[in-house]
Amino acid sequence: MPRRHRSARERVPAAEPVERPRGVAPAWAQVEGATVRTVSGEAGKTYRCPGCHQEIRPGTPHLVVMIGGDLEGRRHWHTPCWRHELNQRLR
Ligand SMILES: [Zn+2]
């Protein structure tokens, strides 16, 4: 029964919640006065992370932080770099 075997295999990877809704950042990433969104990085552009000054390569899911709703002032952050930044601010 090849068909049945195949469908059983396809169900296996459900263990990890990879497909979270895009666009809403997790609660820990939210900060007052800023809009934080997740992006999949599928736009194919390379960004410079202000936290570590390294590139965010195309296809890397990361965060976009918009201070005060200013589109011009938005910055792309590696998710762990933004977490580190928030930890620094809270000190
Ligand atoms: Zn970074």
Gist of the model:
This protein has 91 residues and is of the alpha+beta class.
Task: Give the overall pLDDT as a whole number.
Answer: 80
Describe the sheet with the most strands: 3 strands, antiparallel
Q: For the record, give the distance between the C-alpha atoms at the N and C termini, rounded to a whole number.
A: 60 Å
Number of helices: 2
- Tell me the overall shape: globular
- Residues in β-strands, percent: 15-25%
How many discrete domains? 1
| Order of strands across the main sheet | 1-4-5
Question: What's the total number of strands?
Answer: 5
Bound molecules: zinc ion
Compressed to H and E, one letter per element, the order equals: HEEEEEH
Note poorly predicted spans: 12-21
- What structural class do you assign from the helix and strand content? alpha+beta
What proportion of the residues is helical, as a percent range? Answer: 10-25%
Structural Rg: 17 Å
